[in-house]
What we know:
It is a single chain. The chain has a domain at 12-158 and 180-215 and 271-278: Rossmann fold (3-Layer(aba) Sandwich), CATH 3.40.50. It has a 7-stranded mixed beta sheet, with helices on both faces. Strands 7-9-8 form a 3-stranded antiparallel beta sheet. α2 runs parallel beside α6 and α8 (163-173) runs antiparallel to α12 (242-259). The relative contact order is 0.15. It is built from 12 helices and 10 strands. By secondary structure, it is of the alpha/beta class. The radius of gyration is 19 Å and the shape is globular. Helix content is 41%, strand content 23%. Residues 11, 14, 18, 33-34, 37, 60-62, 65-66, 83-86, 89, 109-111, 125-127, 130-131 line the site of S-adenosylmethionine.
Amino acid sequence: MAVGPPGAAPNAEQRAQWGGDLGLLWAARAAQFEASAAGYDALLLEAAELAPGLQVLDVGCGTGSVTRKAAAAVAPDGTATGVDISGPMLQVAWDRSAGLGGVTFLEADAQVHDFAGRYDRVISRSGVMFFGDPPAAFANLARALRPGGRVAFVVWRSVAENAWMHQLMRALTGRMPPEPPPGPGAFGLADPERARALLEGAGLAEVGVEPCAAPVVLGRDVEEAFGLVRQILAGGLDGLGPADRERAIVALRAVLAEGAGPDGVALGSAAWLLTGRAL
Ligand SMILES: C[S@@+](CC[C@H](N)C(=O)[O-])C[C@H]1O[C@@H](n2cnc3c(N)ncnc32)[C@H](O)[C@@H]1O
């Protein structure tokens, strides 16, 4: 388990990435990233059984779109708190939430922060796959709940089931990408049995692991989508020679053009909806 050297702060690598270039990219393109997975929001919020007056914790909230939707669902007396390790993303979360009641943000590592058992719901849209010590992290999130409280998390299924990932990577490299090795990362909870075991191991009851699917929308049109993809894949593209880079750009644009429709540039995606209840 990637927990780092003894005495080191946990999740140092993730903190560096999300607090550094990756977080800055998400912060700069907040609207696009927020919209990209919005197809899962209604499902997530419904599974969380939100109701006015509840206290909600949104884990790995990023720039806060789900936190804001949760706050609206628990208004007028409830609150939604977004927790994240990325300073740049939280700055944007605060900016985009200006003037909204019941929304607050906290910069902390959700794996270890003491949430003092004060939440009725703990939710996340693709923010719980990055823990270096998942058993410790999910136990900590379970402790954040009051008795009877619920969790609802959306996490990606495998790369092979996520066209948005494997089509773009194949366009870049010319090959089907392998599944990433176990460890923190976007596909870190792709194995449903492992996800179930983590929630049950955290002491949650009535654990559910249900497949769900929605398009990932990368932009309103091909140009906007390519701008995002170009930045996400900058490392891969810049490492290619001129001819291969040109080939990859043509292939990437072709994937995006194929996904273009009235609702923007949409590629297929697949996730697990994880649910559970605190005893
Ligand atoms: C893929 S982004 C998802 C952001 C947001 N939930 C959304 O759907 O737009 C993952 C988020 O998890 C955050 N994160 C990663 N590890 C974390 C940790 N240990 N504690 C809190 N947040 C974490 C990252 O900073 C990042 O904002």
